[in-house]
From TrEMBL:
Domain RNA polymerase sigma factor 54 DNA-binding: 318-476
GO molecular function, one term: DNA binding
Occurrences of domain RNA polymerase sigma factor 54 core-binding (ranges): 118-305
Transmembrane portions of the chain: none
Record has DNA-binding as a keyword: yes
Lineage of producing organism: Bacteria, Pseudomonadati, Thermodesulfobacteriota, Desulfovibrionia, Desulfovibrionales
UniProt name for this protein: RNA polymerase, sigma 54 subunit, RpoN
Gene Ontology BP, a term: DNA-templated transcription initiation
GO cellular component, one term: DNA-directed RNA polymerase complex
């Protein structure tokens, strides 16, 4: 079969996402802190972008005119149309989207203490390893014991338990198992008590011994019956030790004061800080939406580089035009992002007004399509603008996704939001009698009476699990 070259025409349709469109979509999905970082990065890379600042009031002469130095060159007059087109349209593009007046947006911030640097206010985070190493250095260990203690310290997990067998530590340190056990016993009595234990029983027994509880019943409950206590098998334990339920409860109260995970107070996870993208306040009978502009630079085009563009050579002109288009597109994308965020928030406040008035229990069912139809945008745009965005409300700070929840049908045909049902379940369990906790079936009956909502027991169990609430058998307390 011979190979040959041919030319042919083909008509087809395809969707091409330009880099500018990809940038606009990316800006929609960024959180506020990520947006600030992205804008600052663009300020560093693009010479046509600069941050606008409030200019000081000029000094006027005796006739009320601004003096001009002899060497000053007036680049553009205030009436220059090019200057207005390049700069005036963008000076306050972030401040346009606020339902409050500009005077009401002024906030007072607490000033830093004078005479003390910022670094002086920082402190290192305490870790379990550092806390124990400090105690090891203060102890009268020999060199060999110090080496064993350091290996014990290096084999602790996040809960403070020893993750390696003593035989392995003895082999690594070239010492006897008895020596490792002796050092381990001393380390277990460091602060926090019970650290470096090999299981919860040993951890609790170390704390009981150190605190001076020498009751044999208490020791037996910890060493032999932790599983029975976990599953709340109280009556068989009371019969075995010939105790009343009140006496057994006294032992349980002592056990509950102990810490089964001594290393948990030195957690390694970093806290997650949330900066709200907007604030919603109630003023008289209306809710005011104010976008958070703190830390976000006010962009404008650099007038010096705009002048250089006019007299640039061919190669330089291509570079300047590319950077100028990139700068203008970024400013327009930021404008569009703030505009979209404001419109979505207005729609959410309209649909969820009862929530902003009364709280979570009055959260209504809402889907992305409802907001998209209300503001005349696509659902994907609403989904992107509500991702990683937070709003500060009179009832707390919530992610925008929180306001979108599924619906449960009531007997009268109306609907209630799933988040409202979760809030009611949490309230019912919080107000229950701890000696007779509410079962999932009982919660179903109460929801039927209070809300007239038809909900299955497995749905209640699913919501309870999502709220990190244990079952009724694990919530039960003895008399």
């Amino acid at each position: 079969m011979a190979l040959e070259l041919r030319q042919q025409l083909k008509l087809s349709q395809q969707l091409v996402m330009t880099p500018q469109l990809q940038q606009a979509i990316k800006l929609l999905q960024l959180s506020r802190l990520e947006l600030v970082e992205t804008v600052n990065q663009e300020l560093m890379e693009n010479p046509f972008l600069e941050e606008g600042f409030d200019e000081p009031e000029p000094n006027l002469d005796s006739e009320g005119r601004e003096p001009v130095a002899q060497n000053d060159v007036v680049r553009e007059m205030p009436g220059d149309e090019n200057a207005l087109r390049r700069e005036a349209d963008w000076d306050n593009y972030l401040g346009d989207f606020a339902s409050a007046s500009r005077q009401s947006q002024v906030r007072e911030y607490e000033a830093l203490e004078e005479g003390q640097g910022f670094e002086a206010r920082l402190t290192g985070k305490h870790s379990l390893d550092g806390h124990l190493a400090w105690q090891i250095r203060l102890s009268d260990f020999t060199e060999q014991e110090m080496e064993i203690a350091e290996h014990i310290l290096g084999n602790l997990d996040s809960s403070g338990y020893l993750a390696s067998p003593v035989e392995e530590i003895a082999e690594i340190t070239q010492s006897g198992v008895e020596d490792v056990e002796r050092v381990l016993k001393r380390v277990q009595r460091f602060d926090p008590l019970g650290v470096a234990a090999r299981d919860p029983r040993e951890c609790l027994l170390v704390q009981v011994e150190a605190l001076g509880y020498d009751d044999p019943v208490l020791v037996s409950l910890i060493s032999e019956h932790l599983e029975d206590l976990e599953k709340k098998r109280y009556k068989p334990l009371a019969r075995k030790f010939k105790l009343t339920l009140e006496e057994l409860k006294e032992y349980l109260d002592i056990i509950q004061t102990l810490d089964p995970m001594p290393g948990s107070s030195f957690g390694t996870s970093e806290p997650v800080y949330v900066s709200p993208d907007a604030y919603v306040y109630k003023f008289e009978d209306e809710f005011v939406i104010l976008l958070n502009e703190e830390g976000l630079p006010r962009l404008q085009l650099n007038s010096m580089y705009m002048d250089c563009l006019q007299g640039a050579k061919c190669k330089e002109k291509d570079y300047f035009q590319e950077k100028m288009r990139s700068a203008v597109w970024l400013m327009k994308s930021l404008y569009q992002r703030q505009r979209t965020l404001f419109k979505v928030l207005e729609s959410i406040v309209k649909f969820q007004r009862d929530f902003f008035e009364e709280g979570v229990k009055h959260l209504k069912p809402l889907i992305l399509k409802d907001v998209a139809d209300d503001i005349g945008m696509h659902e994907s745009t609403v989904s992107r603008i509500t991702t990683n965005k937070y709003v500060a409300t009179p009832h707390g700070t919530f992610e925008l996704k929180f306001f979108f929840n599924s619906a449960l049908t009531l007997d009268d045909g109306s609907e209630v939001g799933s988040e409202s049902v979760k809030a009611l379940i949490k309230q019912l369990i919080g107000e229950e009698d701890s000696h007779q906790p509410l079962s999932d079936e009982k919660i179903v009956d109460i929801l039927k009476d209070k809300l007239q909502v038809n909900i299955a027991r497995r749905t209640v169990a699913k919501y309870r699990t999502a709220l990190n609430i244990p079952s009724s058998s694990k919530r039960k307390e003895i008399f």
